[in-house]
Every structure is written in structure tokens, then in C-alpha cells.
Write a structure and sequence with these properties.
The complex is a heterodimer. By secondary structure, chain A is of the alpha+beta class. Chain A contains 22 helices and 18 strands. The radius of gyration of chain A is 31 Å and the shape is flat. Chain B is mostly beta strands. Classes of the chains: A alpha+beta, B mainly beta.
């Protein structure tokens, strides 16, 4: 029974994975209908058909079978790739996804109607049926060997091949190489048994000579001494390359085995445990410090300190190693874009292409999951509002095709993601008007705002510039929700735009959410922590002038006027202190916004493991989470971004001259 | 998970005719909850106040590496509790619908096995207790144990909107 469950589990994992890549492959087939892509798609469906058949999911298996038949015609060149075919394949993909999810939830694939789809597939297949039919198997060989050649060419023509570390290969390359070599071997084995077949498959599969020299090159390149087989004797050649390719194939297979699939829950458990370890380590450090104070000079103390330093180091290393296991390339997220854009472009009658950059950039898995919705939303916005219709674009002297760029890169401890389009850009005047209409800003403020500040008004709650409400955007909740989502991830989002040239959304995110550096502060006897990453500087209230402008306290630091937030008032501490003597101001900021948090004492800096407040408390204003200190006390983490936002909003409404920006 | 005390008990109870409850005291009344909800019963821990949280939230504490909120249910139940914290004062940490939460009680008495057929539905009105959160009453010789509908009692979010 358990075995069955395991089988089912791996069927689901594998099939979902194939479906995920199939989606993109079908999409790329539209723009690039070459043999490689076709073969990849065919293989994907073929694998699903096989495993589904084995598992007894007949609907999945018969639908994939129909798709396979259609693809076969395409591979043989009997049919041309048409948008209609792409649509049908995407539909197949869609239905398969539904079926697989039903298998996951209900354990069967029945009840989903796909007969209409089968009809469509059959109709499409019949369209150009008069073309001469080749035998299926030879077509398959031809197609697959085309693939082999491509990979071999790619690898062998790479002058860096020998030097290229094997782990530079992508998993796909491994798989392909592996497969290619296996098939070459099979091919040779076959030919040895039946020499008559050699001439038949000569055109499409690599001849023994080619393969021999190829493998010779490969080995020479990988600096192995090898006796190059003279390419003259085709009959003698087969055994030799077969051996050497087998060798290479085996070594590559060894590499491929270096990755294993791990249940996410196990990683989460590891992550939790390492968090606990950090807490324990912190506690130990504290105890050690006390012991050092008390028994200074004792011989054991020195040993304790050494051991402590070692534990410290290992814990930090372990932590980062575990953290790395959770990193996933952002490609997982970006790859959804082309499909979404395709569908939307069709719906709006626009022509849009997607350019992805920096897909290999890695990000914590949990962050990637949370990014799906905001990203989809922004892409929809770009398609709907940003990119113009082809006619409009041509009139503006731009290419018919609009382009949306998705870019990701590392910047120090952050990931920067940009969603850029070359559409019509934002209309500052219109945004300002809307914001005024909806009472989001006061007229005085509106007059003072620069263009960039105006653009960023679109993130305010209840804002929408869409003249007409469409099914995809313009419901007036959009960008506010996007920003809330990004800020939940401790990230920031900004927008910039040039009229007529396009709009760029920039998202900046931390690499991980689990562990941060915190500045511990005391507010009326209570201890809080402020994420160090947002602290810009800390000053004493005695050193700078503090004024009150429009009932708002501000501090003047050098040339900057910074709005103050009294933390005791904000946190409703049991006692509130009125005076400002001998207190500290932590100037915190994100993007160009700055505010000053008034606290009583500074208690130092600590690495802290962020714990949520749990489902029961959910959102508490001004609090981002909690952490457990070395002595077991729980302290709260200040939500700097929210405080800044509140100050910002208050300023926009008040219409004072106080600047939070500097 | 989303089931009520009675349902859980019905599923769990071998004989189908007895309940296992933990009885505790809050003010003058004695209450009982299904033991299956209970994760831990501890002495009053050091609690960190959570600013700007609803008034019934006393704060959060560290339960072996987990941050758990502690609430005061007396107001909701309409019972008076002695504010003084004694050695008897306990926090009962329960898990309801996958959410961990602790609530303060004056004293925990014992685990009781009670026959299902002695449980009677609560009267429409009770003198000292808000019957909204009461699932039933169990009469034991000299005592009256008020069985609480824990999910309802702790579903504080939806309540606070109407309050």
C-alpha cells in the first residue's frame, strides 16, 4: 500500500515537472518551430503517456496519445505548426494539468471531458494527411538523432569543453547528453548485429566516423590520452566509440546523480532546527560571557571560549549551508510569463514578446512562492495599460511588437527584480488628478510632488487609472495589493516611467526571510529590535535640534529634516516619557524615505531568527514579527516599512512642508 | 481539524459513551475542555506584551522555541477572575484548527472521564456565564462542569468585528 502511495507520489512529481517545462516548450514552438523543440515536446507527452499508462490513468494516457499522434505528423513535416495547433496543444496541457491535479486530490483522472479536444486534435491531424508517410520508427530515429547532433555539436564545438567544469552543465544538458550517448550506443549495437541498417539511417544519425571522431575529440579535449580511431574503416569503428562514449556517458551519469530530490518539508524541518541551533548558540554565548566575567583567568575558561568560537563559526556556516538548500532559481517564476503574456496579448489584440534576463538568479523558495501573484499582476498591468495596440505603436514610430522585460540580479544582500515595458508610460497628470479626486493627497502636496513621487502614488490603496474595467486589471485594488505582498517579504517596490518610452517596476528583496541582524533598543523598559538593514544612523537627541512643525516633531541632521516617531507613543507603552533629553533617534529608511524613531536606550546588535507571531495574532500594526533572545525572552521586531508608510501617508494628507524624503 | 469538541470526541472515543476532559477553574465556575485539544499546561510564563493587539491578548511567550500567544477569556465568558497570579495560576496551551494559543486559568483540577449521557445542553441563560460558548453541562455529584466550545471561544477574530 505504501509502495503504491510512493509510486503515485513520484508520478505526480514527475508529471508536474514535465508539464511545467512542456508549457514553455509549446510556447517556444510557436516562434521557433524546429525539430529540437518538437522532439522535446513529443518526449514530454510520451513520458507522461508511459507513466500514466503504467499507473492505470487511462484518460491521461489516451489524451497524450492523441497529442503524440499530432506531434508525430509535425515531426515528419506532414503538418506545419499553426497557431491553431499551438492552441490545441496548450489546451491538452491545460486538461492534463487538471487531470493530474485531480489524481493528486481524488486519486483518479476521470470525469474531465476531453472528447472535444480529441476531436480537434484528430481534425488538425487530418488536415494535410496526403503527405507521404514514412515509417514511424525511422522518423523517430531521425528526430532524436537530430537532437543528439545538436547537443554533441554544442558540447564539442565548445573550446572550453575540457576546461569547463562538469557542474557547469545544466541538468537538461546532462539528460540530453546522457540520452544521446545511450542512443548512440544502442544504434551501434544494432548496426553491429545488422549491418544492412547502417545505410538506411545514415542520413540522419551520426555515422560511425562522425561519432568516432566526435568521441575522440571529446576525450582529447578532456585531456585523456586516447588512441584516435582512424575514420576510414566504418566496419571496425563501432566497438571503439561505443566503449568510449559509454565511459563518458557513465562519468556524466555520475554527475547527474549528484542531485537528489528532497521533500520540501525536510528542508523546512532542517531550517527550523538550524534556527533553534542559532538560538541555543546565542544562549550559550551569553552564558559564556557571564562565566568569563566571573571566573576570568581560570584555565577552563580559555578552553570554553575557544570551543565557543568554534561552535559559533560552525553554526553560522551550517546555517548558511542549509539556507542555500532552499535557494531556487527565479526561472521557476519567470517562465510563467511568456504563457500569460501570450494569452493576454491575444485577448487585447496586441503583439507582445517577453525577454527574460538573469533567470539563474537564486532566491529563497518561500519568497518565490509569494512573488507569483504580484508578478502576474504587474505583467497583466503592462499588457493591459502599458503596451499599446500595434497601430498605436506604429504611429508612435515604435516596432509593432511591444516588449516586456523580466530581469533579476543580485545586489549585495538583495535581489533586484525589474519588470520593464516599452509601452506608453505612466501619465503623471492623470495620476495626480486621480489621487486628488480620491482624496489621497492634498492639493498643496500635489503641487510639490515630483514626477517620480507622483508615479509612486499608484501604490496607494484604492487607486486605479484604468478608464475601463477589464477582466484582468483595473479593479482598483491592484498595485496596493502588489505592494502589500512585496512588503510582507520585507521588500520594497518602486515605479519609474518615461512618457512614450515605457514603465519600469523595481522590486528589491532580501535573500532570505529567516535570519536578520537586529538592533536591540529599549523603550520605556520594554525591549524591541529594529532590523539593522533599515537603520541608516543613530544619533543622540542631545546633539541635534528638534523642532515642531505643524504639530509634527522633526529633527535636523545636517541638511536633512527628518520626521520623528516617538516609539513609546507608537507602542502604547505603560508609561510615556515627554522630554527628549538623553534619548536616541534611530534614523531608518527605505528607498529615499527617512524617519527617526525615538528610543530610550541602545542595547546592541544581534543576529536574530525571525519568528512569526503565529496565525492567532496575524497582523499587528507596527510589528513585523518576533524573535527569541539568548535568555529565552521573546521580543518584538519593529515593522520599519509600515511606520515609514504611515508617516508618508500622514504627510500626504496633512499637506505640511515636513519632508520625509531627503 | 475543523470539527467541534463533540465531533472529535465521537471520533476518538473508543466506547462512544465517555468523554475525557480536563477540568479547570476560572473565577467561581468550573469548566471543562476536551483533553485532545491540550498541548501543554504550564505555570504562568514570562509574557511579552504585544502593543496594539486586541485587549484580550495578554502577550506572547516562548514555549520551547515556539512563540505562542496568551489570551484572557474571562471577559468573553463573562466570568470574574482573580487578577492575582498565584502558584495555582496556569496557562493551558491548546491547538485548535492548527493554531496554537494559550489561555490563563485560575487552577487546573484534574482529568475527568465523564459519561456522555450525563451531559445536558446549556440553558438559554446562565447566571454567570455567557452561554454562547458553552457546549453542555456535566453534573457530577456535587459539581457542575461547564463544557466549553473551544473553537468558538477562541475564534476571537470574527468576534472582535461585531463587538
Amino acid at each position: 500500500m505504501d509502495e503504491m502511495k510512493e509510486l503515485l507520489e513520484s508520478f505526480l512529481v514527475e508529471t508536474r515537472e514535465i508539464l511545467e517545462t512542456l508549457d514553455q516548450e509549446i510556447m517556444s514552438l510557436e516562434t521557433n518551430p524546429d525539430g529540437d523543440t518538437l522532439n522535446a515536446i513529443f518526449r514530454g507527452f510520451h513520458t507522461i503517456k508511459g507513466t500514466a499508462g503504467f499507473m492505470g490513468f487511462e484518460n491521461i494516457s489516451s489524451l497524450t496519445h492523441e497529442a503524440e499522434d499530432l506531434l508525430n505528423k509535425l515531426r515528419k513535416g506532414e503538418l506545419e505548426v499553426t497557431p491553431e495547433i499551438i492552441d490545441a496543444l496548450l489546451d491538452v496541457h491545460q486538461v492534463l494539468t487538471e487531470m493530474v491535479e485531480q489524481v493528486a486530490t481524488q486519486g483518479n483522472d476521470g470525469g474531465i471531458d476531453y472528447q472535444g479536444l480529441v476531436e480537434t486534435l484528430r481534425r488538425l491531424r487530418q488536415q494535410q494527411a496526403e503527405a507521404p508517410a514514412q515509417s514511424e520508427s525511422s522518423a523517430e530515429t531521425a528526430a532524436v538523432s537530430g537532437d543528439q547532433e545538436r547537443v554533441l555539436d554544442k558540447v564539442l564545438s565548445d573550446p572550453q569543453f575540457g576546461k569547463r567544469a562538469t557542474d557547469d552543465f545544466t541538468p537538461e544538458e546532462y539528460a540530453l547528453l546522457d540520452k544521446a550517448f545511450e542512443e548512440i550506443n544502442e544504434e551501434f549495437a544494432k548496426k553491429e548485429q545488422d549491418p544492412s541498417e547502417v545505410s538506411e539511417s545514415k542520413e540522419s544519425s551520426p555515422t560511425p566516423e562522425e561519432a568516432a571522431s566526435a568521441s575522440g575529440q571529446a576525450e582529447a579535449a578532456s585531456k585523456e590520452t586516447v588512441k584516435t580511431t582512424p575514420p576510414a574503416k566504418p566496419k571496425a569503428a563501432p566497438s571503439q566509440p561505443a566503449v568510449s562514449t559509454k565511459k563518458l556517458s557513465a562519468s556524466l551519469r555520475g554527475m547527474a546523480d549528484n542531485t537528489i530530490r528532497v521533500d520540501v518539508r525536510r528542508l523546512e524541518a532542517l531550517m527550523d532546527l538550524s534556527g533553534e541551533l542559532v538560538l541555543g548558540r546565542n544562549r550559550l554565548t551569553q552564558i559564556t560571557e557571564s562565566l568569563v566575567q566571573e571566573f576570568r583567568g581560570h584555565e577552563l575558561i580559555k578552553k570554553l571560549q575557544e570551543t565557543m568560537a568554534q561552535i559559533n563559526f560552525i553554526t553560522t556556516e551550517l546555517q548558511s549551508a542549509i539556507m542555500k538548500t532552499r535557494m531556487v532559481p527565479i526561472a521557476k517564476l519567470f517562465q510563467r510569463a511568456p504563457r500569460i503574456v501570450r494569452d493576454l496579448a491575444r485577448e487585447f489584440g496586441k503583439e507582445i514578446k517577453v525577454v527574460l534576463k538573469g533567470e539563474e538568479t537564486e532566491l529563497d523558495r518561500s519568497i518565490i512562492e509569494e512573488l507569483v501573484d504580484p508578478l502576474v499582476h504587474m505583467i497583466r498591468n503592462s499588457c493591459d495599460h502599458g503596451i499599446e495596440s500595434p497601430e498605436e505603436r506604429i504611429q508612435a514610430g515604435k516596432p509593432r511588437y511591444g516588449t516586456i522585460w523580466l530581469e533579476a540580479e543580485h545586489q549585495e544582500n538583495h535581489i533586484v527584480i525589474r519588470i520593464r515595458d516599452d509601452g506608453r508610460g505612466l501619465n503623471a497628470e492623470k495620476i495626480k488628478q486621480k489621487a486628488l479626486e480620491k482624496g489621497l493627497i492634498s492639493p498643496e502636496v500635489a503641487a510639490q510632488l515630483g514626477d517620480k513621487e507622483i508615479y509612486n502614488l499608484i501604490f496607494l490603496p484604492g487607486f486605479s487609472t484604468a478608464d475601463k474595467v477589464t477582466s484582468v486589471s483595473g479593479r482598483g485594488v491592484g498595485m496596493d495589493v502588489v505592494r502589500t505582498n512585496i512588503e510582507k517579504l520585507k521588500g520594497i517596490i518602486e515605479v519609474d516611467s518615461k512618457p512614450g518610452e515605457g514603465t519600469t517596476f523595481t522590486i528589491k528583496l532580501p535573500l532570505t526571510l529567516a535570519i536578520i541582524q537586529g538592533l536591540l533598543v529599549e523603550v520605556q523598559g520594554e525591549v524591541y529590535t529594529i532590523p539593522l538593514s533599515s537603520v541608516i544612523e543613530v544619533v543622540s537627541t542631545n546633539d541635534y535640534e528638534i523642532y515642531t512643525v505643524n504639530q509634527q516633531e522633526v529633527i535636523c541632521i545636517r541638511d536633512d529634516i527628518i520626521q520623528l516617531v516617538r516609539m513609546d507613543q507608537m507602542l502604547n507603552t505603560p508609561t510615556i516619557r515627554e522630554d527628549l533629553e538623553d534619548r536616541y533617534v534611530c534614523v531608518v529608511g527605505f528607498a529615499e524615505h527617512r524617519i527617526g524613531l525615538v528610543v530610550d536606550e541602545l542595547l546592541g546588535q544581534k543576529e536574530i531568527v525571525i519568528k512569526s507571531l503565529g496565525d492567532f495574532l496575524k497582523q499587528i500594526p507596527g510589528i513585523a514579527g518576533s524573535t527569541i533572545l539568548g535568555d529565552g525572552r521573546v521580543i518584538l521586531i519593529i515593522d520599519v516599512i509600515e511606520l515609514i508608510r504611515n508617516a508618508q501617508r500622514a504627510r500626504l494628507l496633512r499637506g505640511s512642508n515636513v519632508a520625509t524624503a531627503s | 481539524m475543523g470539527s467541534t469538541t463533540t465531533e472529535v470526541l465521537q471520533q476518538q472515543n473508543v466506547n462512544g459513551d465517555t468523554l475525557q476532559i480536563t477540568a479547570f477553574r476560572l473565577g467561581k465556575e468550573e469548566f471543562g475542555i476536551d483533553i485532545l485539544y491540550i498541548r501543554e499546561i504550564i505555570r504562568m510564563p514570562v509574557i511579552t506584551r504585544v502593543p496594539n493587539a486586541p485587549a484580550y491578548v495578554l502577550g506572547i511567550f516562548n514555549m520551547r522555541g515556539k512563540v505562542v500567544p496568551v489570551v484572557d477569556v474571562t471577559q468573553r465568558l463573562g466570568v470574574m477572575r482573580n487578577d492575582e497570579i498565584t502558584d495555582e495560576t496556569k496557562v493551558i496551551v491548546v491547538q485548535v484548527n492548527n493554531v496554537l494559543v494559550g489561555f490563563v486559568v485560575d487552577a487546573v483540577s484534574e482529568v475527568q472521564r465523564i459519561a456522555r449521557d450525563i451531559i445536558v445542553p446549556p440553558p438559554a441563560l446562565m447566571e454567570n456565564v455567557n452561554t454562547k460558548y458553552v457546549e453542555g453541562l456535566a453534573k457530577l455529584e456535587e459539581r457542575l462542569i461547564i463544557l466549553l466550545d473551544l473553537p468558538k471561544l477562541l475564534d476571537l477574530e470574527s468576534e472582535s468585528e461585531t463587538e
